Amino acid sequence: MRAVWIGALAVGCGDPAPFEEPLTACEGEGEAGVQVGSGGRTGFQPWVDGASATVTGDADALGVRLEFLTSGLDTTAAVSSVVRIDVDGTSADAIANLMLQCPSEGAGWVSVFAPLPSTAQGPDAASVAGLAANLDVTLTDVGGETASQSLELVLAAE
Question: I need a labelling partner for 51 at 20 to 30 A (CA). Which of 9, 135, 140, 158 fits?
Answer without folding.
Answer: 140
